[in-house]
Input
Amino acid sequence: MSATAMRRAVRESVSGLPREFWWLWTSTLVNRLGGFVATFMALYLTLERGYSATFAGLVAALHGLGSVVSSLGAGVMTDRLGRRPTMLIAQLSTAVSVAVLGFMTHPLAIAAVAFVVGMASNASRPAVQAMMADIVRPEDRVRAFALNYWAINLGFAFSSMGAGFIAEYSYRAGFVGEAVMTLICAVLVFVKLPESRPERAKDASGAVVEPEIGLGTVLRDGRFMSVVGLSFLIALIFQQGYVALPVAMGADGFSSSDFGVAIAVNGILIVALQIPVTRYIEHRDPQRLLIISSLLAGYGFGLTAFAGSIGVYALTVCVWTLAEIVNSPTQMGLVVRLSPTHGRGRYQGMYTMSWSVAALAAPLIAGQVIDRYGAEWLWGGCAVVGSAAALGYWLLMRALPAEDAAANAVVEVLKPDAGAAGAVDAPAAGAAQAPAPDTANAPAAPGAEPAGAPAAP
Output
């Protein structure tokens, strides 16, 4: 590719997105650049504090449990309080709790604060995803989610490298450093991001006429909960790259540095390919993309059963990383399209919970399967789960009604809540004002599926 073609590709990848998206993107990048603690927590507890591997695993499990608990609560806060207040509360709570964790010495205190850190650090995700859906045009959402996912992985790659150097100097500096970076995120949100929560429709007297959307509405939405279940299956597969893969490689005689080389392929490919691959897939049939990515994920891990060298292990990582690159933005786009506008927080919270539960369940499942049957059975099971997820996406999306072409022409423009920092710019189209929401995002009546839920973008 020539330099001119490359510049054009980059320009097309980032153009047309509103200014608020880029501030949100920047806060995501800063937050992930400061994600030191998750990287060295196990080493800190075992090497610095002298606790057992069992205790380190317990702390990790409590951190994960905190993420599960906060997913739904943060979703409710996102709809009730707003996106901006929820992000501020989550980021300030994360900064304080992470800093406190670095000074805890008693095992019970460490475990308790780790649980709080898990809750706080996960609480901003539903709000970030809901705000992104609010401020980005429907036709640009897959690209926006891909760019945000790229920022997460880019930040994680650098923070992982930085964590090693910081740990050599001082573990406590890592805790304080993450707290400072999270505070910077909170400042960015406070200064640069206005509230984007859409106003609820009112009648002539000013009374709200749209029905309230509660967690019960989400749970009764069979179509959306099917997506959540399929998301859990996919997340369960991807988690094996960080749970079962190092165990299997160690059993085959490979060192931790060998695993580091293999898993580094994942981050390198995401950083290198996320944007160009997304440009290729963003307007293609999402049903086909989700089916293909599910099969690539399942059989990518399934191929690990035949790996006997570091090169083959790296090749399997390439396969399931491509699945991750395709699946993440496509599935996020589907989640937004199935979420009623005024219930986005709750819907995003439920979706986020599927990944949190998978992160909690994956180590337990992998350990049991490997100990009882061997790693080959686990990799075969991944292939089966990936096939089941592909079949699930085929059945789910086949039943979705055709998308209303006119709906995509409508730019959702949102009035900020009273007291917000300012008005949200309309994406590449001037100032925004609050029109009626498109049918794809019409609020669902309690107990009903979202009205007019479209097939894929």
Remarks:
- The chain is about 70% helix and 0% strand.
- The mean pLDDT is 81.
- The first strand starts at residue 425 and ends at 426.
- The two ends are 29 Å apart (CA to CA).
